[in-house]
Amino acid sequence: MNRRRFVASAFACATGLSTHSMSLGQSRAIRPDLAQLAAGNRLLSFNRTAGSLTDAARTGVRLSEAAGDGVVYLVGIEFANGTIEIDVRGKDLQQKSFLGVAFHGVDGATYDAVYFRPFNFRAGDPERQKRAVQYISHPGYPWQKLRAEQPGKYEQAVIPVPDPNGWFRARIVVTSPKVSVFVEGANEPSLFVNQLSARGKGLIGLWAGNFSGGDFANLRLIPD
């Protein structure tokens, strides 16, 4: 097997794509088959399990609920700078729905992440609405530290406001050290921050917070 075919084959195993679908002329976008990866136990999990999910036209994964934070990484993909697009579905249940994407990860304790609190999307309290999307950098900068020391800087409202019980599309643009978060095709970011870690690359995966699970589909990675 020549080197080009070997690399394509190894990459296909990691992403769930066939070598045929990865022809040299295709777009640079990577579309991992999350459902296939979960079915084949080809995800690296920390404090969560991932099962295949089919919902109407979407196929993806559902992360289990558990105490504490959890992350499920895609094996064989290293992410540095680029765009992460994904469909996400949580629920309108206060303090029981925290879900998003981890990137520049090392393991279950060290990563940057952007996550959403769907139960705050349409909250009657304006202060809760301002806490709908959050950036964190574990282990040094959890949300508690960021809110206490720099309130309103690393969490913001989400505009436009999605259905807290429905699917919504998120786009996270990482151009280290800048991180921008867009929702539902918006031209302006809901959140724009500087990363708090010095890591410029690492693992990428799906993230869920304390006592939360969630649904993820249609992941698309566009590396710079």
Which descriptors apply to this entry?
seven-stranded antiparallel β-sheet; 224 residues; 14 strands; mainly beta; Jelly Rolls; disordered N terminus
Would you kindly provide a written description of the structure presented here, covering whatever features stand out?
13% of the residues lie in helices and 41% in strands. It has a single domain (29-223), classed as Jelly Rolls. It has helices spanning 3-15, 34-39, 126-129, 143-149; strands at residues 43-46, 50-55, 58-63, 70-79, 82-89, 99-105, 111-116, 133-138, 155-156, 167-175, 178-183, 191-194, 202-208, 214-223. The protein has four helices and 14 strands. By secondary structure, it is mainly beta. Mean pLDDT is 90; it is low at 1-26. The strands form two sheets. A seven-stranded antiparallel beta sheet has the order 1-4-13-6-7-8-9.
User: What class, by secondary structure content?
Assistant: mainly beta
Largest sheet: 7 strands, antiparallel
Output the strand order for the largest sheet. Answer: 1-4-13-6-7-8-9
| Series of H and E elements | HHEEEEEEEHEHEEEEEE
User: Class in CATH?
Assistant: Mainly Beta
User: How many β strands by DSSP?
Assistant: 14
The name of the CATH topology is Jelly Rolls
Number of domains: 1
Global outline: globular
- Which architecture would the CATH scheme give at its second level? Sandwich
Q: If helices are DSSP runs of H or I spanning 4 or more residues, what is the number of helices?
A: 4
- Output mean pLDDT: 90
Q: What is the beta-strand fraction?
A: 35-45%
Unreliable spans: 1-26
CATH level-4 homologous superfamily: Exo-inulinase, domain 1
